[in-house]
TrEMBL record:
<keyword id="KW-0539">Nucleus</keyword>
<protein>
    <recommendedName>
        <fullName>HSF-type DNA-binding domain-containing protein</fullName>
    </recommendedName>
</protein>
<feature type="domain" description="HSF-type DNA-binding">
    <location>
        <begin position="33"/>
        <end position="57"/>
    </location>
</feature>
<dbReference type="GO" id="GO:0043565">
    <property type="term" value="F:sequence-specific DNA binding"/>
</dbReference>
<dbReference type="GO" id="GO:0005634">
    <property type="term" value="C:nucleus"/>
</dbReference>
<dbReference type="InterPro" id="IPR036388">
    <property type="entry name" value="WH-like_DNA-bd_sf"/>
</dbReference>
<comment type="similarity">
    <text>Belongs to the HSF family.</text>
</comment>
<dbReference type="InterPro" id="IPR000232">
    <property type="entry name" value="HSF_DNA-bd"/>
</dbReference>
<dbReference type="GO" id="GO:0003700">
    <property type="term" value="F:DNA-binding transcription factor activity"/>
</dbReference>
<dbReference type="Pfam" id="PF00447">
    <property type="entry name" value="HSF_DNA-bind"/>
</dbReference>
<keyword id="KW-0238">DNA-binding</keyword>
<keyword id="KW-0804">Transcription</keyword>
<dbReference type="InterPro" id="IPR036390">
    <property type="entry name" value="WH_DNA-bd_sf"/>
</dbReference>
<keyword id="KW-0805">Transcription regulation</keyword>
<comment type="subunit">
    <text>Homotrimer. Homotrimerization increases the affinity of HSF1 to DNA. Interacts with transcriptional coregulator SSA1 on chromatin.</text>
</comment>
Length: 94
């Protein structure tokens, strides 16, 4: 999904390639999720990431409010790294 050119405006690797960012959660859900999952519910997507050991990285300062659809969501997993497909088999459901 991250490598899909159609999804490039909604999901991308961070500069270091150690995490990925999802932008415009509503539009991401409507346009991208249904192509890769049996649903297009962003909350379910986040729950699935959590079940596989991904963690949300919060970069928004506590006193700043951001509209939900304008918020960027960043996720990381120690075995999910750009260019390291060899590590994907090590990502297991909790």
């Amino acid at each position: 999904m991250i490598s899909d050119p159609k999804a490039a405006g909604f999901i991308w690797w961070t500069e270091l390639g150690t995490s990925f960012v999802v932008s415009s959660a509503g539009e991401f859900s409507r346009s991208i999720l249904g192509q890769h999952f049996k649903h297009n519910n962003f909350s379910s997507f986040v729950r699935q990431l959590n079940m596989y050991g991904f963690h949300k990285i919060n970069r928004t300062p506590r006193n700043q409010r951001v509209q939900p659809d304008a918020q960027q969501w960043e996720f990381s997993h120690p075995k999910f790294l750009r260019g390291r497909q060899d590590l994907l088999d090590d990502i297991k459901r909790k």
